[in-house]
Amino acid sequence: MRRITALVLAACAAAVLAGTAPAHAQQKVKVGALKLTSSAPLFIGVEKGFFKEFGIEPELVFFQAAAPIATALATGQLDVGATGVTAALYNIVLGGEQMWIVADKGREWPGYPLTGIVVQRDLYDGGLRGIGDLKGKRIGITTLGSTFHYHLGNVLEKVGLSLADVRVVPLQTMPAAIEALKGKQVDAILLPQPFPGVAESQGFGKILFWAGDLHPWQIATVFYSKKFAAERRRAVDFMRGYVKASRYYYDAVLVQKDGKRAPGADYDEVVRITAKYTEARPEVIRLGFPFQDRNGRLLVTDIERQMQWWTQNGFMKRTIPLKGIVDTSFVEEAAKAVPEK
User: Which CATH architecture has domain 115-214?
Assistant: First the structure.
């Protein structure tokens, strides 16, 4: 009788546990990212459990620059990349390694600070005020072919200059670039938040312009490896969590009224989460959040424009047909599947 009773109790316990277990086991997904304000939707999705809600457990793998993320994705070290779109990514696809640009992760956009053109404070105080004043100056970026290289070239072209009119200094990582400005090894740098805010708060740099006010574009995306994209259910589940996080982010920090930011109810929470992951002070984070589509939808036409510029400037041999590198079906399916509040 005792044995039967024990078996019954064990069966009941198993039934209770089964009833409280998730519908399907959490699936681990390795995501390459940078510790930047523009990664806020990812941080929100992890911190708020939005990915777990759809059975996904992201493992954030942090890098010091964007280009190595594309390489890691191509070699199977990552499932998802979430960073700037570089010449390296396009050339990897040109070389035969398939990966897919699938969603928005940040745009340079007027009125939404992301990448700052930051100059030495001494040069600013000495009268350096415009893009034309950068002629002949040493401009620090991370790597050749990076988003910063692209942005610098396009901004210079707005005033009739070109990359040949400045000295581009590749410094490999963003921390190295900020230190180079601090040590006066370069005259100016292009870096995203929170680095420009740090340079100003510490007194050695001055934000000359927010680059998105001069040249708007689709600077950062979410992209999938070929293998991950082929696992359709898992890939869509990840995107469902991302879409939910993107909406939360947008409603908290991106809404504007009469041309001014109108912080949502969750603004302070998003600042706290972003500060935690970027390791920057909250007051620096509050300087501004980059724009991205509320549902994570891509500005697809800009991907084509980027490839044309890279090709014209010798960084790509030819452009890639959009259907060979962009797949918006994941974000579209996810946006329809995730209910609004």
Answer: 3-Layer(aba) Sandwich (3.40)
